[in-house]
Each structure stands twice: as structure tokens, then as C-alpha cells.
Amino acid sequence: MFPEFLNISTNENVVLAYQGLNIYGGIVLRTLDAWDPCHWKKWLAQVKSTAQICDVWHLVDPFKTEHEVAEKLIQKPTPPEPLSGDEVNIDFKYVIWKSKFRVYKARYREWEDQHIGIMAVNIYITQHLDIRLLVQMSDELKDPDNSSFEPYGKLTYLSGRFDHTGVSSIESMLKWRRIQMVPPSRGVDVLKWLTEWDIARLNAIATGMETDSNHVICFVGVAQSILPAWGKRKMAELARGTSKRTRIEDVMADFRNAVKSRS
What pLDDT is stored for residue 1 in this prediction? Predict the structure, then answer.
């Protein structure tokens, strides 16, 4: 699938493969784009196009189950045990070992091609997300760089945030009304709750029946029960009128940093 690169590590192959795709430009996905489902569809379409070029869409498609992806993921093969000095001189053992090594080389090439394709798609995804969304996703997925399904995990997460297919406006509004003033339960991951709160908020706005005019006050009110000192300071700013032009996204980012610095 990709050209031969002699004496070059797999990581370097990934970079070379990505550069070989000759992909320039493309739209960037931002947190605010949850308001516009069409933007998500366009962004996912360009990711799909890239993955199809690399012949790995079936391994990163967020609408497939993890089991379906795992079934088609090639595992890195293990080379056969080397022969000892005496065994090399035994013809039939050497012939068997050489046959096993030939199979290993073929399977390794299949694995490497697939791995390079997956990682090239991962580079594309990362380069087409805004920094705020990358930070939120990293917090939510708990260091996705250690995941075997890295691009699949990222796209599944993003699909949950941006794909509103099959969700009615009434369902979105009801969910928002249920959680907008409710802090997380004891023991719940605060950063995960923050993401879910924001998703419900943006889904409600996407229905056209909700605006973000009071979301700053709403968020500070519920966040105050989590970080009292932070909430008290923000409430004081609101009372003085110094936060009238503050965007809800900036307030949430400030809260996220405060939570992370506390832990």
C-alpha cells in the first residue's frame, strides 16, 4: 500500500506516509461547531476520505462497535526464535525456521501497513481539531496516546459530541433542563461531567429553542458547589459587571484549569 522505506523506523514511516497523502487545508472542528451538525458531517467526510486513501476506514469508523474493529485489527507478529549455532547446520531445522521467518516477514508487512495507515489518519485528526477541543478530549479519554484504537477512540468520542442524528429536539431540551443546574454526584469525574454538561447545552442550542444568554450565570451557579472559592470569585465578577462579555466557553475553560490544578 505504501512505498518501501528501507532502514527507516515505523514512526518515520508514519510521517512519510502522511506527507505522501498530499493533503492540504481542510476544515477544523471546534467546540462551537456542535451548533452546526452540517459542519461535523463535512469534517467527518474529509477524515473518511483520508482513511479510505490509507485503506483503514473500517478500523476507525466511529459507527462500528469496538468488537467489529478489534476483529479486523492485525496484531503485531512475533518473530520465530533464532536457531543456535549448531542448529543452523541442521538442514531440515534451518528450512523450517526459514519458512517461519518468511511467514513472519509477510505478516509484519501487513501489520506495518495497517499501523502506518491508522497513525497517518491519527495525525490528520489531531491537526484538524482546535486546541480547546484537543484538551477536552485528552481529559475525557485519559491519555488516548496509549490506546490501540487511538483514531477510533477519538472519532467515537467526537461522534458522541457532534452527531445529533436520531435525537429529537424535545429529547435534547429535556436532557438540558434535567442537568443544567445539577452538580455531579459524589465520586463522579468532574471533567467528564463538564463535558456532558457542555454537550447537553450545545445540543439544546442546536434545536433553536435555547440561547446561551444565561449560560454563564447558570454554569457558575452549579460549578460553585464543586469549587466554592472559584464560584465565589466568578459570582463577584458577574455582580460587578466585569464578566458581561465573557463567553461561556472561556468560563468553562477557566473552571477546567482550576479543577486540573486542584487534583
Answer: 34
Compute CA distances 102 → 3, 85, 86, 146, whole Å: 20, 20, 21, 30
Residue 55, C-alpha cell as written in the block: 485503506
Residue 231: left if φ>0, alpha if ψ -120 to 50, beta else—which one?
alpha
Answer whether 263's CB lies under 8 Å from 189's CB.
no
Blockwise average pLDDT, block size 10, the chain, 263 residues: 35 54 70 74 90 91 91 90 66 80 92 89 89 81 58 88 73 85 87 86 79 87 92 86 70 90 78
**What are residue 21's DSSP bridge partners?**
none
Residue 210 CB neighbour total at 10 angstroms: 20
Rounded Cα–Cα distance for residues 256 and 254 (Å): 5
SS in 3 state form for the chain? CCCCCCCCCHHHHHHHHHHHCCCCCCCCECHHHHHCHHHHHHHHHHHHHHHHHCCCHHHHCCCCCHHHHHHHCCCCCCCCCCCCHHHHCCHHHHHHHHHHHHHHHHHHHHHHHHHHHHHHHHHHHHHCECHHHHHHHHHHHCCHHHCCCHHHHHHHHHHHHHCCCCCCHHHHHHHHHHHCCCCCCCCCCHHHHHHHHHHHHHHHHHCCCCCCCCHHHHHHHHHCCCCHHHHHHHHHHHHHCCCCCCCHHHHHHHHHHHHHHHC
Q: State the pLDDT at residue 106.
A: 93
Given this model, what pLDDT does residue 5 score? 29
Phi, psi of 92 (to 5 degrees): -70, -35
